Amino acid sequence: MNLTKAMAYCRKLPGATEDIKWETNLVFSVGEKMFAVTGADGSKRGISFKVDDDRFLELTDRPGIIPAPYLARARWVYIEDPKAVSDAEAAELLQRSYELVFAKLTKKLQREIQGL
């Protein structure tokens, strides 16, 4: 996984915003709810994001992917080794994280983001 490509993918999702939280974390959000987090200062070479409950154990059993610190109980994983996933798989996982968070938004906010 190329982290620059992963961040570019997050930026192009509908309604996605990014900001700095906790001093050094670049947070990607939709409807003010975060769906991906990485290092803003380049010190982190990985990325954290939400996954489906049934994929959490499957992914964290793979080398280079661990439960995300502070967010594991909400079923977030952290890819600490960029070689653990391909660019294509990273895009699929980030898309799914976005969808999981988007689905929890109010219907009104979902319509606003979709431009309906």
SSE layout and pairings?
Elements lengths: L2 H10 L3 E6 L3 E6 L2 E7 L7 E4 L2 H8 L4 E3 L8 E4 L7 H17 L3 H8 L2
Antiparallel strand pairs: 1-2, 2-3, 3-4, 4-6, 5-6
Helix pairs in contact: 1-3
Could you list some keywords that capture this structure?
116 residues, alpha+beta, Aspartate Aminotransferase, domain 1, six-stranded antiparallel sheet, 4 helices, globular
Describe this structure in words.
One of its GO terms (molecular function) is DNA binding. Keywords: DNA-binding. This is MmcQ/YjbR family DNA-binding protein. The chain has 116 residues and is an alpha+beta fold. The chain has one domain: Aspartate Aminotransferase, domain 1 (Alpha-Beta Complex). Helices cover 37% and strands 26% of the residues. The chain is built from 4 helices and 6 strands. A 6-stranded antiparallel sheet has the order 1-2-3-4-6-5. α1 packs parallel to α3. The chain is globular. The termini are far apart.
- Give the end-to-end Cα distance, rounded to a whole number of Å: 34 Å
Output the helix-strand order.
HEEEEHEEHH
Strand content: 25-35%
Radius of gyration: 14 Å
Query: What is the total number of structural domains?
Result: 1
Mean pLDDT: 91
The biggest sheet, with number of strands, parallel, antiparallel or mixed sense and barrel status, is: 6 strands, antiparallel
Predict the CATH topology: Aspartate Aminotransferase, domain 1
Under the CATH scheme, which class? Alpha Beta
- Count of separate DSSP helical elements: 4
Give the number of DSSP strands. Answer: 6
Note the quaternary state here: single chain
Structural class: alpha+beta
Shape: globular
Uncertain segments are none
* Percent in helix: 25-40%
Question: Do you know the CATH architecture?
Answer: Alpha-Beta Complex
Strand order of the largest sheet: 1-2-3-4-6-5
